UniProtKB/TrEMBL annotation:
InterPro entries: Cyclin-like_sf, Cyclin_C-dom. Belongs to the cyclin family. Cyclin AB subfamily. GO terms for biological process: cell division. Residues 1-83 form the Cyclin C-terminal domain. It comes from Eruca vesicaria subsp. sativa (Garden rocket). This is Cyclin C-terminal domain-containing protein. Keywords: Cell cycle, Cell division, Cyclin. Signal peptide: none annotated.
Length: 94
């Protein structure tokens, strides 16, 4: 992720987190576009990179972060299921 601007990674993380919480709804909207200055289409590549990292996190050789956020006090957030595909039309402007 080091090759990407931090603002792009941050916006993409919000997109993916919202998608994981509710895959039936569009993650991006006009408010998020306004404040991040990114259109959903511009996030596509970075969101997919993050999604791949998240999906493969269970096979990492560095499990500390995953174990930490698998605890009750963090609401088991690391155990949340990450869908392997993202509805393509969610990257199109609404
Ligand atoms: C866009 O999404 C954000 C975060 O979920 C929310 O706070 C905001 O109200 C939404 N804006 C619109 C126009 O729905």
């Amino acid at each position: 992720m080091l090759s990407q601007p931090p603002s792009l990674v941050a916006a993409s993380a919000i997109f993916l987190a919202k998608y994981i919480l509710d895959p039936t709804r569009r993650s991006w909207n006009s408010t998020l576009q306004h404040y991040t200055q990114y259109k959903s289409m511009e996030l596509k590549g970075c969101v997919k990179d993050l999604q791949r990292l998240t999906s493969n996190a269970h096979v990492t050789t560095l499990p500390a972060v995953r174990e930490k956020y698998s605890q009750h006090k963090y609401k088991f957030v690391a155990k949340k299921f990450c869908p392997s595909t993202i509805t393509q039309e969610f990257f199109n402007n609404s």
